Inverse folding.
């Protein structure tokens, strides 16, 4: 019985791996036409013209990476604050309701966030963008990121909506790992006169950094592959702009918008190639996360944590 159960569970585990390899291979094979026709130029070309069948992946790759980066820059510190409040600062009667609400928010479908982003958030952001133009757009260096038409939709809107989506996910993970820190360690730090911030900085975060980094990368993986929420607010324009206020596109949004309209084999092949590139980007991010977690684990073992 034990041997049979072991074979069954092992087979299920390898089945998942085989399915993932099969998905990657099928995307690559169907996208091979675009890779073969355009060569490596497919990765850095801004072109996207279905009429002349001239395709490049630079704009959706740029949009995917930038919108996800904006999301993580917003989401990580806010998630850390939420998790710290729930685990260390909130009164006992408030911890459970707030924690449960955060977990429920993590399960809301992304299309809900997309619709809210387009019809509610985008008009509000559009009224705020002239202020960004006037105050941040004049700064040297980062000013170019905040100069553009005040449309309310674009890379910045997509990044903010993605941040709102992944905040419950990351903060729920951080809260769970913060709660497993031994009380004795925290009370020892408080006994030495440490403040709450110092306990969080020098005790809680070092003790849980492996799990915290893992949660952040899982949130990043979700942001990279998010489709519907981004499709509603990113603008869906195959134009490359450095400004976050301009409309752009992401790989997932391009696939969702254009697959039904792909009328030629090369058009379909270019979209499948985009899907394969998104698979590779997500896979590389998760591998880097795994390597970072492994190095952090090695460091903690050496430090005796």
């Amino acid at each position: 019985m034990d041997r049979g159960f072991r074979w069954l569970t092992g087979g299920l585990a390898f089945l998942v791996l085989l399915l993932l390899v099969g998905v990657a291979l099928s995307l690559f094979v169907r996208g091979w036409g675009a890779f073969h026709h355009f060569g490596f130029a497919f990765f850095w070309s801004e072109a996207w013209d279905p009429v002349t069948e001239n395709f490049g992946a630079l704009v959706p790759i740029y949009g995917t990476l930038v919108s996800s980066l904006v999301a993580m820059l917003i989401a990580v510190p806010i998630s850390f604050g939420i998790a710290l409040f729930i685990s260390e600062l909130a009164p006992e009667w408030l911890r459970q309701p707030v924690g449960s609400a955060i977990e429920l928010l993590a399960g809301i479908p992304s299309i809900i966030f997309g619709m809210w982003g387009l019809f509610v958030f985008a008009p509000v952001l559009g009224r705020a963008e002239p202020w960004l133009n006037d105050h941040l757009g004049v700064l040297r260096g980062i000013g170019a990121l905040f100069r553009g038409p005040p449309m309310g939709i674009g890379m910045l809107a997509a990044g903010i909506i993605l941040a709102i989506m992944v905040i419950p996910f990351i903060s729920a993970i951080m809260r769970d790992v913060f709660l497993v820190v031994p009380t004795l360690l925290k009370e020892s730090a408080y006994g030495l006169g440490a403040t709450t911030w110092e306990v969080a900085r020098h005790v809680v975060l070092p003790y849980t950094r492996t799990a915290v980094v893992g949660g952040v990368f899982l949130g990043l993986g979700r942001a990279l592959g998010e489709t519907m929420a981004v499709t509603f607010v990113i603008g869906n324009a195959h134009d490359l702009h450095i400004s976050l206020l301009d409309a752009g596109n992401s790989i997932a949004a391009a696939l969702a918008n254009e697959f039904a309209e792909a009328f030629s084999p090369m058009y379909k092949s270019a979209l499948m190639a985009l899907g394969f590139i998104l698979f590779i980007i997500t896979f590389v991010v998760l591998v880097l996360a795994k390597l970072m977690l492994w190095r952090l684990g090695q460091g903690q073992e050496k430090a005796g944590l």
The first helix runs from residue 2 to 38. The beta strands are 48-49, 54-55. The chain is about 75% helix and 0% strand. The longest strand covers residues 48-49.
